[in-house]
Fold:
Amino acid sequence: RRVCHSPPARHPAARHGFQNTMTSTRDQAVAARSASRQLQNLSSEKRAELLCAIADALELHEPAIMDANAEDITAAELANTDANLMNRLKMKPGKIAQLAEGARQIAGMPEPIARTLSKMEIADGLVLTQVTAPLGVLLIIFESRPDALPQIASLAIRSGNGLLLKGGKEAQRTNQALHRVIVDCFPKFGVGRDCIVLVEGREAVSDILKLNDVVDLVIPRGSNDLVSYIQNNTKIPVLGHADGVCHVLIDRDADLAMACRLAVDSKVDYPAACNALETLLVHTKHVESGAWFEQIKPALENAGVELFGGRRAAKTLSLPPCPALRHEYGRPALTVEIVDDLESAIEYIHANGSAHTDCIITDNQVTADAFLRRVDSACVFHNCSTRFSDGFRMGLGAEVGISTSRIHARGPVGVEGLLTTRWLLRGKGQYSDKDTAVAYTHKVLPTDEQWMYKAMGYVGLAVGLANAVHIGFFLFQWGEKG
Structure:
């Protein structure tokens, strides 16, 4: 895309001391793209150094960040903010250290930009390579959770993308403090501060959603209403999920002690999270044996979980009916439903789930493998908490969000999800002339990484042969002495 580096034409309103919102948001997006190219021009080592500098700065300015967060919490309490939003807003002790560690973990990742994915000789002396490349400029909209800002910024920096960030108004002070700490590190590395822009005001977001010629991807993180609004009001591609209706199936062959522990953790560890358990599927065997009443139900109720029933469980287990079969509670509550077998469980998940994260608890490996293979969700687990559906926990360093889309990226989206590809063709004067001037070979060539692994294999083989010869010679000498 073309980027105009000359000063933009001033809107007539600017002469009277204010500026047209559309003009300013477009300028911000264009400036973010220009600064992102400065970021891309840094070596991998320099971008890693920048991330480490940000990690150090976050830890250095922790008192100021926490003070800003305390002010946001006080204002939110006075405004009678919803309890779930309050829980997301509060930055708990140790959070800054975790964010700094996440930035350092991302800094230590292999270089993501310009990585060769494939290589082919098109014709003699004409070589085509496919390489990874940044997407460009991203608009990330997130509600309440200020800790998302440094996570998203770290991923964007490592992948060379420009950012427009819009946080919830309830976290305004915390977001401003975090943003200031991060962008203050840029000038030392020759990167413009406007590589990451903190957008303020709903009107600005509405304007940015119209900039499909400048912004390359929108990632909304928040409520179902927010995601649906974004999807319905922009031509820019949207990556995200509207619901987090996660299921756990307690199979007939489940270890019940494990099942109770994992179900409780999946729901109670962070009830408002999109990877929290919302529907518990219980095999009919555990109802008939009494295990539901003696073990599973008490474990959930003792953990403070409110239980509702699906169509069958409401009657059989005497539970109040659930609001809907596909329902995200976002609090310590869940739906229980009874299933007869694996087939009916999978059908239920596909009919009522959101393709986010679904888990089976079973000691039967055949059943587990069938569940993992057949459930069509972004994340499918066996014998573990749904809470592991998280970029940091999966070793991605952080995540910009979790996608249930089937195009581009699925599940927790880390650095890899912020990349696209480009084709680079290197020739020696070849031309087409209606394909009469070139003899196509279309020969697949090994990439540099493949050459490296092949060389390592040869080295390993050579070392192995040398050791074998040495051992053989030693045994021969030992035999001669004997």
Observations:
- DSSP finds 16 helices and 16 strands in the chain.
